[in-house]
């Protein structure tokens, strides 16, 4: 049913003008077309993958980890005005071979990446196709709800990718304690049990401390060797390593820590990985695989988990800013001493 609440004609939006500078401009508030929803954005989380837009500039309004409330509905939609929820990054077609099997993160006819190809969640309002909106329980605060996306979604998907090839995981190594690494850590604990040993390596003491607080065994690569810490904890190696660093050195260290039958899941985009196929893969039957974002359907599973574990997950959020301080938020975030940083409107 088509309905739009009273909204202003224009809105102030941040302009990513490049070279690490964010200005402000005006834009008309968009109207939802057929099949679309108008969302009043309440929170959007900063992400390492915004780096390109922050330094190179962006023609669209960035923000791909948005939570908000529906304030307008286009023809043919069924979502009610007033419904809170989050926005799935990828506008999947729902009809291709991948989508039909539920692989919505591998859609062959993808129509948009909200926050990249189309305006995202740093504007006060955004329009999305209805299929990417995930309605949520109103008890979840909007800021915390953004964790359903890259934190729980991407983190949980990486763990599930590892489980596809290794069902008896006894220890995990995460290569990087940035927000995605913390998300993988949290989801490892929630999906595999709080007793699962999870090693997290990084160079940033602030992030390692946060990982420790969330139940990880920290490895400070500035002064420790990963294999030494893993052995000191009583393990010969790990069964799954999740690389969130995107660094060749980090992936190599992860590979060297893997047991026989171990699996390396690459989540962080970045540099290359060099393999000595005979010794690294064949002899020990190891697996290397990629993990990209997550399937829309995983939101329902993660929604149930966030309702149960909100205080634990909330620890990942360390800073909150209004949109008027977005410049400061990004500078702090890229400098490294943060967990997840939110813009709340
Ligand atoms: Zn992100
Ligand atoms: Zn598709």
Automatic annotation (TrEMBL):
Transmembrane segments: none annotated. InterPro entries: ADH-like_C (IPR013149), ADH-like_N (IPR013154), ER (IPR020843), GroES-like_sf (IPR011032), NAD(P)-bd_dom_sf (IPR036291), Zn_alcohol_dh (IPR050129). It comes from the Bacteria. Keywords: Metal-binding, Oxidoreductase, Zinc. Coiled coil: none annotated. Pfam families: ADH_N, ADH_zinc_N. Residues 18-343 form the Enoyl reductase (ER) domain. This is Alcohol dehydrogenase catalytic domain-containing protein.
């Amino acid at each position: 049913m088509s309905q739009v609440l009273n909204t202003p004609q224009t809105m102030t939006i941040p302009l990513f003008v490049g070279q690490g500078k964010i200005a402000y401009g005006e834009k008309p508030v968009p109207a939802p077309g057929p099949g679309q929803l108008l969302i009043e954005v309440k929170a959007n989380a900063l992400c390492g993958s915004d780096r390109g837009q922050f330094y190179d500039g962006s023609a669209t309004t960035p923000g791909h980890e948005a939570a908000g409330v529906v304030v307008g509905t286009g023809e043919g939609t069924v979502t009610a005005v007033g419904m809170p929820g989050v926005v799935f990054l990828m506008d999947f077609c729902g009809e291709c071979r991948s989508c039909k099997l539920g692989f919505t993160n591998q859609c062959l006819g993808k129509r948009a990446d909200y926050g990249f190809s189309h305006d995202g969640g740093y504007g006060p309002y955004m329009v999305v196709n209805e299929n990417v909106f995930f309605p949520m329980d109103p008890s979840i605060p909007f800021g915390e709800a953004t964790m359903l996306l890259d934190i729980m979604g991407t983190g949980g998907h990486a763990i599930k990718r590892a489980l596809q090839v290794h069902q008896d995981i006894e220890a995990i190594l995460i290569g990087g304690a940035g927000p995605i690494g913390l998300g993988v850590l949290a989801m490892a604990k929630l999906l595999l049990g709080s007793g699962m040993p999870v090693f997290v390596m990084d160079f940033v003491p602030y992030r390692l401390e946060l990982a420790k607080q969330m139940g990880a065994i920290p490895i400070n690569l500035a002064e420790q060797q990963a294999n030494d810490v893993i052995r000191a904890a009583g393990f010969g190696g790990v069964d799954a390593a999740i690389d969130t660093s995107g660094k060749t050195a980090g992936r190599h260290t992860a590979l060297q820590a893997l047991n026989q039958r171990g699996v390396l899941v690459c989540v962080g985009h970045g540099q290359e990985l060099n393999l000595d196929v005979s010794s690294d893969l064949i002899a020990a039957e190891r697996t290397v695989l990629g993990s990209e974002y997550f399937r829309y359907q995983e939101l329902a599973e993660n929604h149930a988990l966030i309702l149960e574990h909100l205080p634990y997950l909330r620890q990942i959020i360390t800073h909150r800013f209004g949109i008027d301080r977005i410049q400061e938020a990004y500078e702090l975030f890229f400098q490294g001493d943060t967990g997840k940083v939110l813009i709340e409107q």
